[in-house]
Amino acid sequence: MKFKKTAAVLMSAALALSAASCGSSEEENDAAQSANGSEVVFTVGNQTVTVNELNAYITTYLNTDYTFDEAKTYASEDVANNAAMIALVEAMGLEYTDEEKEAMAEQKQAMIDNYGSQSAYEDFLDTLGFTDENIDTMLEAQYAEEKIFADDLTDDALKDYYNDRYFRAKHILFTTMDTTTYEEYDDDKKAEQKALAEEILARAQAGEDFDTLMNEYSEDPGTESNPDGYYFTYDEMVEEFEDTVVELEENEIGFCESDYGYHIIKRLPLEEGSDAYEEAFEGVRQTIKSKVIRNLVENKLPQLLEEYGLEIVTNQEVLDSITE
């Protein structure tokens, strides 16, 4: 399952969907109202999800430009998985600590503060069909994930994920466009840049200090703000740059051409424990944690539900009755 997670859509940036929601039509907010709102559509243990709750999640996705079918699919996954998480916490005999309860309360208060008052916060929830209890459920499910998968979310586990999927590289860029106007150079200028790039590549591969060459020749404006190189994962850099880095061994130098120009690239080790590594890792810690949790929900949650005698039971007739 794709597990888009409404909590990420709705709660990140403190319910920043308000701009989209305020412009949504009455028809859009009523898009999924054909079933009786109090009917139960999902059951997990003693946890139930009503049509009204699912409709609210669907509306949230509709306000972020998903089609109705996509919104219904993702929303169904969200509410069912939230119910499963909460039911699992109880089945596993886990309890929320006072600190966790306080953190949940503070997180919800931050949302209220973002809207200026309790009534403004409630008005916004009403535009989506959410209730205050729905937000409590979201928060409880979020903290349930952290408790259920605690052994898989340690610093060591997150850094293992980071080390397997992130790269570090420096490059010397010879542009093939005017970086102010973004107009491409003519063929003569491009040929001149390529010849210079090939000359510097040969010097770098012959053993000249890469940093010295980079500081002298690179036309990348990001070099100064990334003195330790770029830290990145898949699909974050231009394709040619990423492909070259992935193919290189650590401390090996390669060459590629992209829309930006000619790149002389040196792949570098991540150097776990260094200040630069720790800073880069902390910058993406929450992103990594979210990805790890997503994988765990897809791959480990079904096993845990079976282990503890739980099942996500779908009232298919009710679910099918929810139409655009």
What can you see in these coordinates?
By secondary structure, this protein is α+β, with helices and mostly antiparallel strands. It contains 15 helices and 7 strands. A 4-stranded antiparallel sheet has the order 4-3-6-5, sandwiched between helices. It has a 3-stranded antiparallel sheet with strand order 2-1-7. β5 and β6 form a beta hairpin. α4 packs across α5. The chain is elongated and about 70 Å long. About 30% of the residues are buried.
**Which residues form runs of ≥5 with pLDDT under 50?**
1-9, 11-34
Instruction: State the shape.
Output: elongated
Instruction: Name the quaternary structure.
Output: single chain
Order of helices and strands: HHHEEHHHHHHEHHEHEEHHEH
Number of strands: 7
Question: Largest beta sheet, briefly?
Answer: 4 strands, antiparallel
Task: Please state the average pLDDT score.
Answer: 89
Measured by DSSP, the beta-strand proportion falls in 5-15%
What is the straight-line distance between the termini?
A: 22 Å
